[in-house]
Design goal:
2 copies of one chain form a homodimer. Chain A has 216 residues and is α/β, with parallel strands linked by helices. Chain A has 2 domains: 49 residues, Orthogonal Bundle (Helicase, Ruva Protein, domain 3); 152 residues, Dna Topoisomerase Vi A Subunit, Chain: A, domain 2. In chain A, 44% of the residues lie in helices and 12% in strands. Chain A starts with 10 loop residues before the first helix and ends in a 7-residue tail after the last helix.
Chain lengths: 216, 216
């Protein structure tokens, strides 16, 4: 067998497969399929992807305030004077931020953790950069910090670490004679539009535990 | 809501999502996940992917003989004088070619169709470029052409179109007083290593229909 055909195709094709395999959720088979697609389509189409990667990396930096990817610093959201600057919502990822923001139901600012505790994946508190959160929450205009981690095992573990960090913020605030920030958390219960019969046992248990008075 | 956050993130991030969405098997959610990954990892890692795409496109062209992607023309396989040049195996994709070649059981040359008939997807005979196949099969040193399309509905339909094209080749060969090429097809039956109870009805029916004498 000719060496060029060794592991399946020319060297630069195999190099492309290797790079694609490093993407999350892309296994060897998908990477091979994508690489072959990229060498088969019109060259301009493939280069548009390469250029989009380069352009995104050249233009996007984490916002120094909320840490969401942005082409400006502070980002448009953090710079928006119409938003409630006393309210800070902590989310795990920028995608969570966009999902919340798309609802239009939240008009405060954000803080993107960029990580979540996951002992199984070996992700511990050092990945959370709690110091950055503490500095942000210590800023004078912050009055309330809402924890918006995901409603699952890792999100709940992460929330505990955030609570501790925010306690440190409040201890320092009190020490300097300031008012503590109010720490809140997104409500847990039945998802509006969902059906009870399809909810998990823990979602239903949470909904019961968090039941509220229905009397007006 | 600030315009930059519109559909979810800065413009160059959204442009990257759009390019990733054009890849086969990558839906909007995967594209978003991949784009966020690419702006979060170390810049060098993201640029390695962009560069791998550029390098592959700069170096790889279809071999003029077999049409597999190659950095040389003819490709290493077609240029390999140790291979049996009288034998031509038609496969649908370069990936099929690599799978066959990795077995070491085939030492002839290849011809990559690059497409398969699929009426449901609107892919008709014009996509097959049968003219290129006919020119290749008409070359003097070809004595046998084996049809190696996939053993499924589209592969069988494609095989029919190939048979007709090869009949045209043989008609022309006969007209010029030459010997016709032998046209064969990969055997259909039970896959070695598989288990009968897990085979499809059509695979078992094929295996029975194609049964061979077990007497020595």
């Amino acid at each position: 067998m000719a060496p060029e055909r060794g592991g399946g195709g020319p060297k630069s094709l195999q190099a492309l497969v290797e790079q694609l395999e490093r993407l999350p959720g892309i296994g060897p088979r998908s990477a091979t399929r994508l690489a072959h697609h990229l060498v088969r389509v019109p060259e301009a189409d493939a280069l548009m992807l390469a250029d989009a990667i380069r352009a995104a990396r050249a233009r996007i930096r984490p916002c120094s305030q909320c840490r969401a990817p942005s082409e400006s610093d502070p980002c448009a959201t953090c710079a928006d004077t119409a938003r409630d600057r006393s309210l800070l919502l902590i989310v795990e990822t920028p995608r969570d931020l966009y999902a919340v923001d798309a609802t239009g139901a939240y008009s405060g600012l954000y803080f993107v953790l960029g990580a979540r505790l996951s002992p199984l994946e070996g992700i511990d508190r050092s990945a959370l950069d709690l110091g950055a959160l503490e500095r942000r929450a210590a800023q004078d205009d912050v009055a309330e910090v809402c924890i918006g981690t995901n409603p699952d095992l890792e999100g709940d573990g992460t929330a505990l670490a955030l609570l501790e960090a925010l306690e440190r913020v409040n201890a320092a605030r009190r020490e300097h004679g300031g008012a503590p920030v109010r720490v809140t958390r997104l409500a847990r219960g039945l998802p509006t539009g969902g059906q009870i019969e399809y909810q998990s046992a823990s979602a239903i248990a949470d909904a019961f535990e968090g039941r509220r008075s229905a009397e007006s």
